[in-house]
Specification:
The chain has 208 residues and is an alpha/beta fold. Helix content is 41%, strand content 10%.
Length: 208
């Protein structure tokens, strides 16, 4: 098994990755497994995730594929129970399921005069159903799995929804990992022009 770009030890942790059948999230699942986590790969169809789970296990990691539609709460709750029975309670949840819909996309990146009457899909032609489908997948597809799995995390830590989620003030050492990550060309060579909040989850919790 090849090494990760950062030597993070996740031994004993259980990681759940939704949308794990895709290119990005399958790579994230493999990265978590290389760090020592037991990984549950969730996807609407199982062909790809069964293959990715087999790859992880063949390299000495621990992984299992689970069929899961992230828009179905009953399914997510049942899968959360299955994962807990197989691996233990969830420690890490990566909500990677999401996507777009052709009915919610314009044919051109920029509007040009005449597009309204032309045989092209402009902003003014977007389907409400298509936009609703995209919103549902990307918002509810994060909300529902979080409702299913985060209750396992709350039961043990009690920190997620109380005050500042991490339940403490930051310390200088909390900046060190982010610093080393951002200056590591292998780990963060494609990251620029972004703000990385290191605030214990305050911004996400407060809606800032």
């Amino acid at each position: 098994m090849r090494k990760n770009v950062i030597d993070t030890d996740l031994s004993g942790k259980v990681a759940v990755v939704t949308g794990a059948g895709g290119v990005l999230c399958s790579d994230l699942a493999k990265t978590l497994a290389r760090a020592g986590a037991k990984v549950a790969l969730l996807n609407r169809s199982t062909d790809a995730i069964e293959r990715f789970a087999a790859d992880i296990n063949a390299e000495g990691g621990t992984a299992k594929a689970y069929k899961c539609n992230v828009l179905e709460k009953d399914t997510c709750m049942a899968v959360a129970e299955q994962v807990q029975n197989d691996f233990g309670p969830c420690d890490i949840l990566v909500n990677g399921a999401g996507g777009n819909n052709p009915r919610a996309q314009t044919d051109k990146e920029f509007y040009e005069k005449g597009d309204i009457d032309a045989d092209t899909q402009s902003f003014f032609d977007l389907s409400e159903d298509g936009v609703d489908a995209v919103f549902s997948l990307n918002f509810n597809g994060t909300l529902i799995p979080t409702q299913a799995f985060a209750r396992q995390m709350i039961g043990r830590t009690g920190r997620i929804l109380a005050g500042t989620p991490m339940g403490r003030f930051g310390e200088p050492k909390d900046l060190e990992g982010a610093l080393l990550f951002l200056v590591n060309n292998e780990a963060a060579g494609f990251i620029t022009g972004v703000v990385l909040p290191i605030d214990g989850g305050f911004q996400a919790y407060s809606g800032v």
